[in-house]
Write a structure and sequence with these properties.
The chain has 64 residues and is an all-alpha fold. It has one domain. It is built from two helices and no strands. Keywords: Membrane, Transmembrane, Transmembrane helix.
Length: 64
């Protein structure tokens, strides 16, 4: 359980920061508040994907 929480936090931070930085560099029309909100949402979504869905995909792929 601790490992999944740690994986979620790492995925959340990494994906959220990278997403926000890419949007900041490519399209500078967003305010800092919008960038933070988008980064948090994307980070949570990718963190949940990494924890809940990706292990199922890998397990199913290795079974074949």
């Amino acid at each position: 359980m601790k490992r999944k929480i740690l994986e979620f936090i790492v995925a959340f931070l990494f994906n959220g920061i990278i997403f926000s930085l890419i949007h900041l560099v490519i399209d500078n029309d967003y305010t800092l508040n919008e960038l933070v909100k988008m980064g948090v949402f994307f980070g949570v979504a990718m963190g949940l994907f990494h924890i809940l869905i990706l292990p199922y995909i890998v397990k199913r792929k290795n079974r074949n």
